[in-house]
Every structure is written in structure tokens, then in C-alpha cells.
Amino acid sequence: MSCWVPGCPPLGMCRGVAALPVTSIPPLPFLPSRAKDLKTRLGILLHTPELRHRIGTSSKLQLGSRWRDSSREALEWRESFDQLLKSKSGVTAFHTFLKTEFSEENLDFWLACEDFKKTRSKTKLASKANRIFEEFVQNEAPREVNIDHETREITRKNLTGATSACFNEAQAKTRTLMEKDSYPRFLKSASYQDMAKQATSRGISKRSHT
């Protein structure tokens, strides 16, 4: 008698496997490269028109509801990338956009570096530096940022005598990448365009009533 699942071995064999204790079944190894491959495939799929439309619509609805009150401020975000990063709601809106491109680790790393610079305790400075490096900078890091090998090695050496400036070069490279690559796409996104239009229409409405 066979199992109902297509391609499954005879039912007796299925029952035999099911009867084994859980501890006797070896766990599957976690391969960081498999996770990175999945992210790469998701990035490729993102360029499929249908999927891009669905993600854009979802992001549009989320931002439209959460940042309606900040729409006037949104007009300032297009003045410069610095202006966007100075705004709390701007950073949050940009982070939401980066999630649709599966690249939010770049902004998270930049923010972690900004927080790191405010650390005053030398003991905390060293422990924070190691955590940031392990999460974002080292090879096969869970949320590895896209920096060159030379910058990665310089940052690794900086950890031996951790100071508030040990991530400066890596942070600058990541910031430039976001400013030149992700930021222009954010300004062209449907979610940001809707916020800008809303801000503009409110401004016109106010002027017409004065």
C-alpha cells in the first residue's frame, strides 16, 4: 500500500520513518550562502513587472496610511539625501521602501554606526563594534552590506583598538551606495510620489484659503 503523496515510498516505510525518535533524525545544516542565493533570486524576481507592481502597491498603501500626517515634510526629502536622513519619518519611509528592494540592511548598518558613535563607555564600544561587524561587515554576515574587500579588512583591523571612528569608511561607502542607487529610485517610487502630491495639494489648498 502506497502513501497518498506522489513519489512517496510505500506506506510501511513512511510509518517506519515516523516512528523514529526525533533525536535520531539529523538536523539540516544552515548554509549562509543559501540565504544569500535566495536574496539574489528575490532581487531578480523584483524586476518581474507583476511582482514589482504588487510590492509597489503594498508599499504605497502602507506609506500612504502611516505618513499622511508627514506629507508636508516629504517635499523636503527630495532636496538632498542628507535632508531625508535628518527626518525621522523620512528615514522610516526610506526604510520601508528599501524592504521592497531587499536592501534595508544598508540603512540599518548606517543607523547602527550613528548610534555606535554616541557610545562613551570603552567597554561597550568594543562589544558594540564586534556585534556590528559580525552582523553587517564580515564575510557571510547575516545582513552583509555591499562593501569592497579592502574596506572590509580595514574595518576588521580597526576592531583591535575600537574607537568611535572604526566604522567610518564602511559607513561612508554604504551611504554613498544608498545615495547614488536607492535614493533616486525612492524619489521615483509610487509611494513617495503620492506623498509629494498630497503635500503639494495641501499647500495649494492652504494658499487658496488665505
TrEMBL record:
GO cellular component: membrane
SMART domains (alphabetical): RGS
PROSITE patterns per UniProt: RGS
Signal peptide: none
Bilayer topology: Lipid-anchor
Localization, UniProt: Membrane
InterPro entries registered for this protein in UniProt: RGS, RGS_sf, RGS_subdom1/3, RGS_subdomain_2
GO annotation, biological process: negative regulation of signal transduction
Pfam families in the record: RGS
Keywords linked to the UniProt accession: GTPase activation, Lipoprotein, Membrane, Palmitate, Phosphoprotein, Signal transduction inhibitor
CDD domains: RGS_RGS16
Domain RGS: 80-196
Predominant location: membrane
Any one Gene Ontology molecular-function term assigned to this protein's record: GTPase activator activity
Task performed by this protein: Regulates G protein-coupled receptor signaling cascades. Inhibits signal transduction by increasing the GTPase activity of G protein alpha subunits, thereby driving them into their inactive GDP-bound form. Plays an important role in the phototransduction cascade by regulating the lifetime and effective concentration of activated transducin alpha. May regulate extra and intracellular mitogenic signals.
Name by which UniProt lists this protein: Regulator of G-protein signaling 16
Gene: Rgs16
